[in-house]
Amino acid sequence: DAGVIQSPRHEVTEMGQEVTLRCKPISGHNSLFWYRQTMMRGLELLIYFNNNVPIDDSGMPEDRFSAKMPNASFSTLKIQPSEPRDSAVYFCASGGTNYGYTFGSGTRLTVV
Amino acid sequence: AQSVTQLGSHVSVSEGALVLLRCNYSSSVPPYLFWYVQYPNQGLQLLLKYTSAATLVKGINGFEAEFKKSETSFHLTKPSAHMSDAAEYFCAVSEGNTPLVFGKGTRLSVIA
Q1: Which of A16, B12, B76, B89 is the Cys-Cys partner for B109 at CB 3.0 to 4.6 Å?
Q2: CA A15, CA A12: separation in Å to the nearest integer?
């Protein structure tokens, strides 16, 4: 089991550019979560999917953020256009409440 | 809505001393409770979970936590701290079908 795989590990981009973060969940996990971690706000849930369907995106900060899960093995989080305040570590996790979530290693995004 | 309060953003202990990290939760239904650990530049790793079975839960790396409903607490303990325990620790709560809500985290330092 390779765990939850996120790419890229690091991303540095200029303000205004489009950024796409990718996640491959653990096979068989029906739920997928995108979290953002910053020093000021801690871990924030952005959006989650059950069986590839978005359930709650109320944590997405602005319309500049969008997420998709076209199939059970892949999800993307897109920011367009990016801004410096989007700089953070973005985590993808898969799993369920009964057995906990498995987190990926995260994508450290820096927008300059 | 559920919430978690972790008392103390930073805890420092001597190697070999007892580790006690505090977590209090708020939930309108019997909760699911979790402790995660995060090492620098890594994702979160599940330490242990409480899902309405035994109130004393044993996890990895010698950690354990006790669910106390009357105190709405789920404190994390380890009898003897090791240098490798230095990390950030997060308590999280779920009400079953809801995503995990995380506390702000407690940074544990271990002094030789």
Answers
A1: B12
A2: 10
